[in-house]
Amino acid sequence: MAGGGAGIAHLCGPRLLNQAVKLSPADLKAALVREAQALGFGVIGVTDPDATTQAGRYFLEFLAGGGHGDMDWLAANPERRADPRVLWPGVRSIIMLGVNYGPDANPLDALTRKTIGTISAYAQGDDYHDVIKKRLKTLARWLVAMSGDEVKVFVDTAAVMEKPLAQAAGLGWQGKHTNLVSREFGSWLFLGAIFSASDLPRDEGDVDHCGSCTACQDICPTAAFPAPYKLDARRCISYLTIENKGPIPREFRKAIGNRIYGCDDCLAVCPWNKFAQAGREAKLAARDELRAPALSDLARLDDTAFRALFAKSPVKRIGRDRFVRNVLIAIGNSDDASLAAEARRLLDDESPLVRGAAVWALSELIDRNELAALASRADDKDENVRQEWQVAGIV
């Protein structure tokens, strides 16, 4: 996730010189669908720029309640996110596209293997921002050449309410976990958008098919859903392990388990996922080294090794210190005393974020006498680290 307009690509240009006949809107859309499918998009739909009026009101209520936590970029220029025409007055059609990233194994299975770290399925391969944006730009250039009309491309990083727009375009519906659910791909869709000045035929929006199911809410380890279709990001493990820049709040540490980057629980439990496996693109496949990495190996990463391991991965954006903080929380939850050696070594790490997490991990793995033997480090220069020692009962 990122804020601002970094995800906007402005594309305009002359139509192809060899194009002799201007296509009708219906023919242009049909050709657009074929081109999108050829580029690897699993689903495409077109909606009206005014389709998210109600969702825009809900979004402003979400911000007013503070549910976005420290994600200040969400609250920046909220009117742009709430109304696509504020973002770009020239938009006449919004084209929503999705790419299936359904994992080849159930992410919930890895949660029982406490000495490995679990990385959210979307982050086990190359950064989807880069993969999807390349496809979107290729499709957008094709559309400009065929229509002669201006377009703008967005993928996650700009002020676009992608999920409500995707529902309005017929790609699926926002489930009770607030993510998009597709009858064809379950909860596993990357989304991208092309805003076009062309007036294209609209698709019929999808409707809610969740029924009485509450599986996604019931499974959440930190009770991040105060009500159906509402998320308190401040309690969400994805927020806590990715967006949160400080220490993991103590009340959530045990619940995090071995989740070291994001959380797939609410997605993985969705009954619609039984349809999500077909059509998986090889480019979005997980890297073997990120499927089940050992916590002992991850705890030893310095900045150089971290950058090398997570080259082209979205994990790289949180930096080594935040990542190792997460690894130490998982080590503390591992019930494996042999991992205490890794946490003990990191008591001397340069990062106070890492040192503080190491104190907590040790307090969970070794007895009080062993921890007391390390009390010389309790007079840390960082206040948060000193507080960790105090809570551990050593100071």
What is the secondary structure topology, with strand pairs?
Elements lengths: L8 E3 L13 H14 L4 E5 L5 H12 L7 H4 L2 H5 L1 H4 L5 E8 L17 E2 L8 H20 L3 E4 L7 H7 L4 E2 L5 E2 L7 E8 L18 H5 L17 H7 L6 H7 L2 E3 L3 H4 L26 H4 L4 H7 L9 H14 L7 H6 L6 H14 L2 H5 L10 H9 L4
Parallel strand pairs: 4-9
Antiparallel strand pairs: 1-5, 2-3, 3-8, 5-8, 6-7
Helix pairs in contact: 1-6, 14-16, 16-18
What fraction strand? Answer: 5-15%
> Which structural class is indicated by helix and strand composition?
alpha+beta
Order of helices and strands: EHEHHHHEEHEHEEEHHHEHHHHHHHH
Average per-residue pLDDT, rounded, comes to: 88
> Could you say what the CATH topology of the largest domain is called?
NADH Oxidase
Q: Tell me the count of domains.
A: 2
CATH class of the largest domain: Alpha Beta
The number of distinct helices, counting runs of at least 4 residues, comes to 18
Termini, distance in Å? 39 Å
Give the CA-based shape. elongated
Please tally the β strands and state the result: 9
CATH architecture type of the largest domain:
3-Layer(aba) Sandwich
Percent range of helical residues = 25-40%
Q: Give the C-alpha Rg.
A: 23 Å
